[in-house]
Amino acid sequence: MADVQHAFQSWLNQRYSGQFHRQLLLIQGPKDWTRQQAASLLSHSGAGQALWIGDEPDQVSCRDYRRQLGNEWDTVVYDLFAGVSASALVALSGTVRRGGLMLLLCPAQQELVHFIDPKAGQKNSFGWPVGPSQFCRWLLDRVSQSRQVAVFTPEAFRGYHYQADEPSAMPGPCASPEQELAVQGIVKVAKGHRHRPLVITADRGRGKSSALGIAAAQLIRDNARNIVITAPHPDAVAQAFTQAAKLLPEANQSKDRLQTAHGELRFVPVDVLLREAQPADVLLVDEAAAIPAPLLKKLLGRYSRVVFASTIHGYEGSGRGFEIRFKPYLQAQRPGWQQLHLSTPLRWSPGDCLEALWFDALLMRDAPETLASQPFTALKLHWYSGPQLASQPSLLHKVFDLLVNAHYQTSPDDLQRILDAPDIQVVTLQQEQHLLAAMLVQTEGTQRLADLANPISLGQRRVQGHLLAQNLSAYLCEPTLASLSYLRIVRIAVKDSLRRLGLGRQMLRQLTTEATHRGYDALGSSFGASPDLLAFWQHSEFMPVRLGHKQDAASGEHSLLVLKALSSKAQIWQCALTSYFYDEYPYLLATYFKQLDASLALSLLKGNRQDVTLSARYQRQLQAFSVGTQPLDNVLQALRCLLISRVKLPACMDTQLAMRYLLQGWDIGSVCQEAGLSGKKQLVARLRSWVKARLDATP
């Protein structure tokens, strides 16, 4: 033991006396021993400023890791014995300064087969057993095999040094030529031609947020009065404010504002920007990859000078999803847009060991591409549990890569859930060995909720997980709905090059058959509603059963629950749910759904299978209105009935205009402003033409 301790101290002393890359130090052994070694290391003069993620009163819980993202530390200690979060591991590694250490305290290798994440009970769905963490075992197997990781156990020490180059100094506030180009690009957006947005992409630690702050300070000195910065969380812009404050020492600074006599930098949340008119000489959007593409599109339409900064490998969202979902829209709407990519790390040296380790360990690099042949034949569904995927690392990498590319919110925590959650499975669509598509599915309801079905239905109890089962039960106040067996489709992802070829729908058809054979009562899903997504699910015979009254914080859209009954008892309840939904939906359009996209509002109306007839009296009123002998105010109810009864006819722009005015309760001024009309006279003329066309068409 003395020899082991001596070898470790020798390595540590040498490290603190030189210029080396950041590294991970794995301290494995009994819990108390690992914590003693970490405490001893922090007492070393070279340890510098330290952050300890753990469960003691003077430590930071892993749940609060986001609050540390604006800080930098010489040493970060992460205690796995206190709880595991894959996203926290990645995020906190980015707070380690150049030349620093990240310590990971964990059980010995032979004990990992029995190690249970102490936070698992807070993450697992109610009623499912908590077992040993497959994720921790899988992760530490990968980490401990890397020569770039130092491993310290009571029995042995292994560690190597990796020399790093001294950073080269630059004149002025910028730390690299790339960052200087980024600052110049931001200033050009603010001062140059309108509608020429800039996109800055980078991995973490490349100085993109600092570039936003440096450029903001420069613009304020040049009398740019209003600079607005936004991001998914206020913490994400801390570095931008820090850099701007350094260059504007005379500024008055508060939590979300930096103000001088020449101008100001303000943080404004995304939802506020979209809800209220905010004056801005330029809008800076940081961590754009973690903001839903529909919201980015709205920001682009509302502000004429916009800079989007996006992390490619994020712990909250994927920049690769940003590439796929948003850049094509930019090209179509703003062909003069520009792009800059920052590749040189500033917080650490090029070739950094710690960054490379986490990229590899948590599958944050692109998986090898394999191409399937067309036409698609012999396509099969394969079902995998977490342990089964852990034993097939190549397939796991390809599946996770698919999910990252398909959804902006896929994070390292999703990888942890795939491996650890017993109620989650991955269903793949494969052509022989070629992966074409994948779904993340979750079992909900069942007899696990039987004892709590009544209080759940009355809204008196809410348990972890079981989103569909609990929402639908409470919606109708029906206990039976809580204990049906649901298979919820959490994510569905098709390889980018194979999208819009019908593979997603084919996968759902096969899933319907196999889920029926496995005894599920219903398939379902919950997603941020949009016209395209609604059409996809409706085409596969999933029925809308509930629309959330509030906009979802993650997607910026209303969450829509869809259901496809598989059993006879589920069919009865699906009829009850859809009937209740369509009974209340038209009446909620003028309140909760007043700002709902008009085309989406119409698409939801089309799903109503209950026919609405237009009475003879209403037809006479509408005929008179269409030729100008009845005023608008006299035929409002007849117009509403016409819209609903003819909603399945092909929609046009005037149908959306009618939806806004007749069912969503917009005032005439707002309707005219959105439709580009001069006033009520022009609105009435458009409605008269629309009525005539609808009356002449076959319903």
Shape summary: globular
The structure class reads alpha/beta
Helical region count?
27
Report the mean per-residue pLDDT as an integer. Answer: 91
* Low-pLDDT ranges: none
In terms of DSSP E residues, the strand content is 15-25%
In which order are the strands of the major sheet placed?
9-10-11-8-12-13-7-14
Q: How much helix, percentage-wise, in residues?
A: 40-55%
| Largest sheet data | 8 strands, mixed
Determine Rg (CA atoms, Å): 29 Å
Number of strands: 21
Chain oligomer state: single chain
Gap from first CA to last CA: 86 Å
Furnish the topology, listing elements before pairings.
Elements: H1 2-16, E1 23-28, H2 31-42, E2 50-53, E3 73-79, H3 86-93, E4 96-106, H4 120-123, H5 134-144, E5 149-152, E6 157-158, H6 177-191, E7 198-202, H7 208-221, E8 226-230, H8 238-247, E9 252-254, E10 257-259, E11 264-267, H9 270-275, E12 282-285, H10 293-302, E13 306-311, H11 319-325, H12 327-333, E14 338-342, H13 353-361, E15 379-384, H14 386-390, H15 393-406, H16 412-420, E16 424-431, E17 434-445, H17 453-457, H18 467-476, E18 485-494, H19 503-517, E19 522-528, H20 531-539, E20 543-551, E21 558-565, H21 568-588, H22 598-606, H23 616-626, H24 636-645, H25 653-663, H26 668-675, H27 680-696
Parallel strand pairs: 1-4, 1-5, 2-3, 3-4, 7-13, 7-14, 8-11, 8-12, 12-13, 18-19
Antiparallel strand pairs: 5-6, 9-10, 10-11, 15-16, 16-17, 17-18, 19-21, 20-21
Descriptive overview:
The chain is of the alpha/beta class and 699 residues long. 40% of the residues lie in helices and 18% in strands. An eight-stranded mixed β-sheet has the order 9-10-11-8-12-13-7-14, covered by helices on one side. Strands 15-16-17-18-19-21-20 form a seven-stranded mixed β-sheet, with helices on both faces. A six-stranded mixed β-sheet has the order 2-3-4-1-5-6, with helices on both faces. β20 and β21 form a beta hairpin. α3 runs antiparallel to α16 and α22 crosses α25.
